[in-house]
């Protein structure tokens, strides 16, 4: 049964938005009330509840915290991404970072973290770029860790199935090389080839956790278009947490609309939104 649309009170919005900020770092200002109301309407329908008060009571109950929080945060988070988004970053990776890495006489694995990987387009793009370098320049033993807060998009990333529209902008030679068409022509979908999928490991991670449950000593971290949803104080805290996982001299990428201006973080800027860890 689909329930008719109900309104969220200012009290319930404040209660939910404060919780979302405290637990997940996402700042929902009062102008986002209608957006939150609209997205959570799906959960009211699914749970057959007729008010947001009932929903809040459930979310903050012991049972709700165990069963509902993942559903709620999946609806609250914004997950917009594309293959080869902000291509200058991948050019910098190919032309500077990878040659620098291979020039080092100490042979070791290259460790990359896609922090806020959404449905997988970023880590799979990284895998394609590195694989192309390996074939044309020099082999590299590399691994990519990819994390996100949303279990919904992580499941999509692990499955690695995308509509043909999602890959339309990728050069034809790369599409032929790294994507498999569905055997059912009516589906109009493609899937990342197995050997590329095997290079990426996925896991759920909340940047608000006191300690981030992920390995350290990454050579490269991509955290693009993620901290834009946090306020300035939270952005600085998150970047410092991420930097704790980066080797001195490692590289850190932000999204094109993000900045570290005015922050106390161990990064020096090399190019717009490209940084190096300095200590």
Automatic annotation (TrEMBL):
Its EC number is 2.1.1.80. It is an enzyme of class 2 (transferase). It catalyses: L-glutamyl-[protein] + S-adenosyl-L-methionine = [protein]-L-glutamate 5-O-methyl ester + S-adenosyl-L-homocysteine. InterPro entries: Bact_Chemotaxis_MeTrfase (IPR050903), Chemotaxis_MeTrfase_CheR (IPR026024), CheR_C (IPR022642), CheR_MeTrfase (IPR000780), CheR_N (IPR022641), CheR_N_sf (IPR036804), SAM-dependent_MTases_sf (IPR029063). Keywords: Methyltransferase, S-adenosyl-L-methionine, Transferase. Residues 1-279 form the CheR-type methyltransferase domain. It comes from the Bacteria. Signal peptide: none annotated. The keyword S-adenosyl-L-methionine applies. This is protein-glutamate O-methyltransferase. It comes from Rhodocytophaga aerolata. The lineage of its organism: Bacteria, Pseudomonadati, Bacteroidota, Cytophagia, Cytophagales.
């Amino acid at each position: 049964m689909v329930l008719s649309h109900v309104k969220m009170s200012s009290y319930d919005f404040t209660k939910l938005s404060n919780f979302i900020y405290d637990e997940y770092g996402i700042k929902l200002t009062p102008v986002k009330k209608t957006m939150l109301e609209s997205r959570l309407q799906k959960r009211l329908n699914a749970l057959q509840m007729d008010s947001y008060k009932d929903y809040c009571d459930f979310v903050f109950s012991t049972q709700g915290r165990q069963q509902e929080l993942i559903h709620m945060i999946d609806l609250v988070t914004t997950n917009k991404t594309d293959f080869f988004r902000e291509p200058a970053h991948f050019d910098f990776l190919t032309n500077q970072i990878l040659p620098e890495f291979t020039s080092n006489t100490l042979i070791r694995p290259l460790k990359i973290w896609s922090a806020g990987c959404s449905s997988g387009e970023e880590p799979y793009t990284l895998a394609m770029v590195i694989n192309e370098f390996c074939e044309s320049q020099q082999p590299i033993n590399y691994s990519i860790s990819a994390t996100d807060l949303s279990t919904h998009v992580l499941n999509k990333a692990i499955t690695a199935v995308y509509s043909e529209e999602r890959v339309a902008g990728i050069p034809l030679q790369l599409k032929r090389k790294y994507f498999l068409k569905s055997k059912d022509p009516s589906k109009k979908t493609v899937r990342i080839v197995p050997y590329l999928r095997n290079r990426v490991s996925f896991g759920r991670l909340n940047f608000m956790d006191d300690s981030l449950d992920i390995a350290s000593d990454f050579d490269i971290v991509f955290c693009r278009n993620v901290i834009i949803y946090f306020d300035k104080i939270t952005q600085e805290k998150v970047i410092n947490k991420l930097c704790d996982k980066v080797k001195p001299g490692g590289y850190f990428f932000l999204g094109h609309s993000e900045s570290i201006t005015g922050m106390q973080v161990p990064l020096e800027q090399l190019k717009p939104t490209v940084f190096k860890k300095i200590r």
